[in-house]
Fold this protein.
Amino acid sequence: MGTRSLTYVYDGAKSENPEPLINLYRQYDGYMEGHGAELAEFLDGFHLVNGLGMDDNTKKIANGMGDLAAQLIKHFKTEPGQFYLQVPRVGIDCWQEYEYHIYSDMIEVIAYDKTDFWGNWQEYFNKIKALLKAQKEEAA
């Protein structure tokens, strides 16, 4: 049985109470060390902009959250199965154990109905790096 997850991308900052643009369902490996780590790596170094310049095509940028959502889908959806778009409605029940809520200013991770992380994208990346390092050391 897989560890299911939902990834919501919102059109704005958390404080703005934005609507979700997408809800990406992952069938398995949705836990922090799986999907969470892949998501952290995807988001690491991204810059949100409002309009693209001539030299912006060489950077890891998104022209707003809609562009980020589209790039996220392209990044994760590479073959049939595993990832599916769901109705972008918060509270939907897909038997998910994890939820990742991505806002323009932060990410919130909910594990088993409790907030496990709340902070900006860089803080999230650092938390995942530390988690993976600790697991590696524990296994050694």
The longest helix spans residues 121-139. Strands lie at 5-10, 20-26, 47-48, 61-62, 83-86, 98-102, 107-111, 114-119. The chain has three helices and eight strands.
